[in-house]
C-alpha cells in the first residue's frame, strides 16, 4: 500500500539527525526555482497570489534556494496535518517504512519521499513560467508524475491510500490513477445535531494522525485503518463504502 499526503505551505527550519535522500525530480525543482529567483517581488506576489510581505520572504528563499540547508520533507512541513503527524517523534523503523510507502505531493518538487531533502519555498498550482511551457505548474507536472505514481503503486500491491487533497489530484491524470490502481480515500466528519459535516481543520489533523498510525503500525492493508481512532474520531462501518471509509466524531 502506497500513501499520498499533501505538503504544507507552512515550513520550518529545525535540526534533524535523519539521513537525507535526493528528490526524484530535483533537477526539475532546480529549474523552476531558478526561474522563480529571476522574478521581482511584485511578480512573485501575483504569481503566488499572496501579499508583498510574503512575496518578499519567498523572493529571498528563491535567491538562496541552491545554497540553503536541506531538511527531510516530512520534518520541514509544519501545517495542520504535520503537527498531528509529529514526524520528529517517529521511530527509525517507522521512518524507514515511510520512505518505502509514503509520497508527499508538492507543486515545486512534484512527488517527495519523506526523507528527501528540501529547502523552504512557496509554490502555487497556478504559477506559469517558461520552464512550465507557460502552463500552470500543476498541469506541467501531470505528464511527469502520472506514470510514476501508478507504477509505484502497482509495484507495491496496487492500492493507494489517498490522504492528500483534491487540489493535488491535478498533478496527475486522476482518471487514469483511479482506473489503474485501487484508491482508498478516508473521509472525516463531525456529527452534530444528527448531521454530518466535514470541518477542514479536523480533516487535516486526522489525515496527519492517520499517516502516523499507518507508519507506526506498519500497516499494509487498507482494512487495517479501521482501527484508527483520534480525538474522538472512529470508523463508522454503517456509512461510507470500501473506497471511502468514514470516520466520525460525535459532538452531539
What proportion of the residues is helical, as a percent range? 25-40%
The H/E string reads: EHHHEHHHEEEHEHHEEEHEEE
C-alpha Rg (nearest Å): 18 Å
Question: What number of domains?
Answer: 1
Total beta strand runs: 12
Oligomeric category: single chain
User: Which structural class matches the secondary elements?
Assistant: alpha/beta
Strand content: 15-25%
Number of helices: 10
Contiguous runs where pLDDT drops below 50 for at least 5 residues: none
Straight-line distance between termini:
35 Å
Mean pLDDT metric:
95
Instruction: Describe the largest sheet.
Output: 5 strands, mixed
**Looking at the structure, what is the overall shape?**
globular
Major beta sheet, strand line-up: 4-3-1-6-7
Amino acid at each position: 500500500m502506497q500513501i499520498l499526503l499533501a505538503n504544507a505551505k507552512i515550513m520550518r527550519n529545525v535540526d534533524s539527525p535523519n539521513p537525507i535522500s535526493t528528490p526524484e525530480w530535483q533537477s526539475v525543482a532546480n529549474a523552476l526555482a531558478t526561474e522563480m529567483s529571476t522574478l521581482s517581488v511584485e511578480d512573485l506576489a501575483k504569481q503566488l497570489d499572496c501579499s508583498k510581505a510574503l512575496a518578499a520572504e519567498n523572493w529571498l528563499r528563491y535567491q538562496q534556494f541552491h545554497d540553503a540547508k536541506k531538511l527531510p520533507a516530512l520534518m520541514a512541513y509544519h501545517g495542520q496535518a504535520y503537527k498531528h503527524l509529529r514526524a520528529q517523534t517517529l521511530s527509525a523503523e517507522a521512518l524507514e517504512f515511510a520512505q518505502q510507502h509514503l509520497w508527499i505531493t508538492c507543486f515545486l518538487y512534484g512527488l517527495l519521499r519523506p526523507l528527501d531533502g528540501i529547502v523552504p519555498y512557496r509554490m502555487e498550482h497556478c504559477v506559469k513560467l517558461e520552464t512550465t511551457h507557460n502552463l500552470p505548474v500543476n498541469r506541467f507536472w501531470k505528464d511527469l508524475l502520472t506514470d510514476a505514481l501508478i507504477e509505484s503503486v502497482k509495484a507495491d500491491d496496487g492500492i493507494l491510500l489517498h490522504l492528500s487533497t483534491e487540489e493535488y489530484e491535478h498533478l496527475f491524470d486522476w482518471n487514469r490513477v483511479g482506473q489503474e490502481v485501487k484508491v482508498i480515500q478516508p473521509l472525516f466528519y463531525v456529527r452534530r445535531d444528527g448531521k454530518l459535516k466535514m470541518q477542514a481543520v479536523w480533516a487535516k489533523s486526522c489525515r496527519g494522525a492517520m499517516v502516523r498510525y499507518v507508519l507506526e503500525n506498519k500497516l499494509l492493508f487498507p482494512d487495517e485503518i479501521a482501527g484508527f481512532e483520534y480525538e474522538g474520531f472512529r470508523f463508522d462501518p454503517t456509512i461510507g463504502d470500501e473506497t471511502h471509509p468514514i470516520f466520525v466524531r460525535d459532538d452531539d
